[in-house]
Write the structure tokens for this entry.
Amino acid sequence: MIDEVDCMNVRDILWEAARSDSHRALPILSFPAAQKMGVTVEDLVKNSELQARAMELISRETNTLAAVSMMDLSVEAEAFGANVRFFSDEIPAITGQLVSNMEEVQALEVPDLNAARIPVCIEAVRLAKERIHDKPILAGMIGPYSLAGRLMDVTEIMYVCFDEPEIVHEVLEKVTSFLISYGSAMKAAGADGVMMAEPLAGILSPDMADEFSVPYVTRIIDALQDDSFAVIYHNCGKSAGDMLESLFSQGAAAYHFGNAVDMAKIMAEAPEDILCMGNIDPASQLAGGTPETVAAAVKELLDRCGNYKNFIPSSGCDIPAHASWENIEAFFNTVEESK
Amino acid sequence: MLNEISVKLQAGKAKIVKELVQQAIDAGTPVQEILENGLLKGMDVIGEKFKNDEVYVPEVLLAARAMNSGMSVLKPYLVAAGVKNTGKACIGTIEGDLHDIGKNLVRMMMEGKGLEVIDLGTNVSPETFIKTAIEQNCSIICISALLTTTMTTMEKVVKLAEEAGIRDKVKIMVGGAPLTDAFASKIGADAYTPDAATAAEVAAEFCHGM
């Protein structure tokens, strides 16, 4: 098995799964491991050993296609100096506005890889790679516009995009430079790819996404992706479905969509050589549903999308830490029982 | 002139809307007409387009900013003319939750329906919602949540409203990505709305019915 993974890159593994007559899933699943480990979310996000053990646990106990590291989208903003609030049962959140004008943006330093919890996340991937031999490792990473939004405030940045777009572009230059360094470090630590979450681009209009997200995402993908390292692009916003052509032009190894879009519509529009993933509602189903409702939702998803040979079933976004394992098991079981 | 205000508002042209509102006032146009057939009409169009997925979040933010720009000129005249708000609401993201885009959009859309909206921000305790509703005489409490762990705290707002004896005087509206109609019914809220434009419509209906 080790040899199989060593000689297959993430892209190959995902395509093989998509083209198979049976289904396998790749949900964004990491934080629910905290329940089984008896630790809090705050413990997890601050400790590389715990993160690696969480990835190992999920890799061992589920039939996921890859081990995904913590999808904690506060890590990179914190490295830039943003304030973070930690919770025992939820992923951390960024508070306040770090930069608001050109002077502040020009003074904003691109952090090195020792800033804040960046070393914790890189070390977690390194440890996970040492311990997980039968599945590829995907590191979690934020996308450029979503990081810029956390530094400038997610509402305010949209005004600035119209009023003084050069300020947003200046921030985007800096975060893109950082994300390329961070992704490269993940690669060096042993990650087989990154799942880059760009959710804020999913509330922009297609024109705005074309200006403020797509070119920067493309640069990051071009810098990181090669035959042995894949970038999976995640966008769970509602408008993602209106900008497919542009998103697909970014060149990611796969595209992951949220439950705000109709997955069947995405699959109908996606070219056959574009790998797409999605989109069981993590909140209302995996966290708020029952094994029966989860199974029904998965069956419906597979009824509508399962025949596409470029589709992999997944959660629509990161699965909440408190989602019950009965629901998670129902998700995997239903996927695997479906032909 | 009023149509032009509406059109420029929809295009998010804050400075032009402000100038046009002043011109309309100077031309002797009744201030209530400027409000209803200029500013609020423009927001109505944007709200409808947003509900139908014809415009995106940034366009709504810009239109709302243009409305506020026009209102900054118009408000003193509205007060002087004794024009009342459609109603009064307080809004916030529930305790433990720091997300605010959805809440901000609802606030803007409600203001676009002529409601006075007190924005309590994020991480708002159930007690603060109730205290504000009582002290500010709000007829609507509007609660937002993005996290599945925080949405359950919304039920406490409903219970506190009952305990405070204001439940029959205030409508409680809830919204946010993980919420559903069934959840709203379960906690005893008056309405769940799936998007900001619908929230504003329902709020306006509640106010008209009170």
About this structure: The mean pLDDT of chain B is 92. The longest helix of chain B spans residues 57-80.
